[in-house]
Sequence to fold (276 residues):
Amino acid sequence: MSLPAVAKADDRRSDARAPGDGQLRQSTRVPAVSVHETDQALLLIADMPGVSADRVEVVVHQDVLTLKGSVHPDTHEGFRQLSGEYRAASFERSFTLPAEVDSTGVTANVKLGVVTVTLPKQKAVLPRRIAVQAV
Amino acid sequence: MNSYDWGMWNTLQDMEQIFDQVGRAYGSTRRGTPFLGQATPALNIWANENTLVVTGEVPGVDPASTTISVLGDTLTVSGKRVFAIVGEQKTERTEEFNRSIQLPFAVDADRTEARCQDGVLTITVHRPEAEKPRRIAITAA
Fold:
């Protein structure tokens, strides 16, 4: 079984579901996400600057994981905007989970505006060490 | 005054998003590569008469590794982001950034304030007292 291929296929499918696909949405941004794999889990690492732990929402519904994060608007009372290179809009992105993931054990943490979602693998697909007995 | 054209800017961002998605569909990743000349970090600038607020998105950047300096009307932000590469062997990749922008007026370096929260940098700078507009009293002759 080729697990890296699973992660890649998942990333590709996730983009088919990304907001903005087919329609241009102004209200949310799609966070940049990298997908990593360890023996035990898949990791989704999403850049969501301005999102604190209490503003992250991770919802798993059937095989779709939706990651949302809201940010405070970048406005300053009594100031006018001279230039703008980014829009401080909230983030949203969905992913189709591969069957190998144990969706009941999903955890998430956020540090410095980077959200890490840990998707543990089902026990059945974890590598097992087989004891060899001397005959 | 509102010289900033949000409509156009949103269009550029939408274009960038489309290119991003096309790129990913073909298995490439655009991460860290500027497109349409977008510099890193992206900055927004706000002003009133004597104060400027500069905000920037720096996800994953440790504030301790970030340096902010002011010289006259030039503000420089530099720092680095360390990416942990997960795999059989844990390794790291570092991306550095260094960006200077010109502010609309020279500022007082000693009164520069900066904070970084949840990957968003906020820098507040002030016009020097000596250069603030002063009301001149007119004496009757």
